[in-house]
Design goal:
The chain is mainly alpha-helical. The chain has a domain of 93 residues. It is built from four helices and two strands. Strands 1-2 form a two-stranded antiparallel sheet. The radius of gyration is 38 Å and the shape is rod-shaped.
Length: 178
């Protein structure tokens, strides 16, 4: 609506008359015998603009339609980037919960194996394997944190300036672990 109102104002302004004031001072005679001053007023009355204003309005409306068509694929691209990032976050959180559970189980098992080792009911290699499993789980958690840090800028970069358009920059403080 606002665009149509602005175009209507342009159309009305193009059908109103305009005035301008011109002045000039000149000295056409080389030896100072006299000088001339000219003052003129120009008034212009349009002849309905010969359709020029209407044609420019039609052209501007077509340009607006084309621009609207350009926005649609961009919005889709941004939506897909947001969806991809949300899916990554959901997977990452579930994976992290599972790894935390694995670490808790490993720690409990290590405590149990240390007691069994003291009583001679288990071999040291079993305890060492369980410690390696714990370390692998800790490494996997660190990889998840790294993936989270690298995925956020990647999601923002996949759409160019999407960050301001779709609030993609505010996804859980880029660079912070949560």
């Amino acid at each position: 609506m606002a665009f149509d109102q602005a175009l209507q104002q342009v159309l009305e302004a193009s059908n109103s008359f305009t005035t301008s004031l011109h002045t000039s001072a000149s000295n056409p005679k080389p030896r100072g015998a006299g000088s001339t001053i000219f003052v003129g007023i120009t008034m212009e009355l349009p002849f309905k603009g010969v359709g020029k204003a209407e044609a420019s309005i039609v052209a501007l409306k077509k340009e607006l339609e084309v621009s609207a068509l350009d926005v649609s694929p961009y919005e889709e691209k941004v939506s897909l980037a947001q969806q991809k990032f949300d899916n990554f976050e959901a997977f990452n959180k579930k994976h992290e919960v599972l790894l935390d559970e694995r670490m808790r189980i490993c720690k409990d098992r290590i405590d149990e194996l240390e007691l069994k080792l003291k009583t001679g009911r288990v071999d040291v290699t079993v305890l060492a394997e369980e410690i390696l499993t714990l370390v692998r789980a800790e490494i996997a958690i660190e990889r998840l944190k790294h993936d989270r840090v690298t995925q956020k800028p990647s999601a923002v970069a996949s759409t160019g300036q999407a960050c301001q358009v779709v609030n993609l920059c505010n996804v859980k403080n880029i660079g912070n672990y949560e």
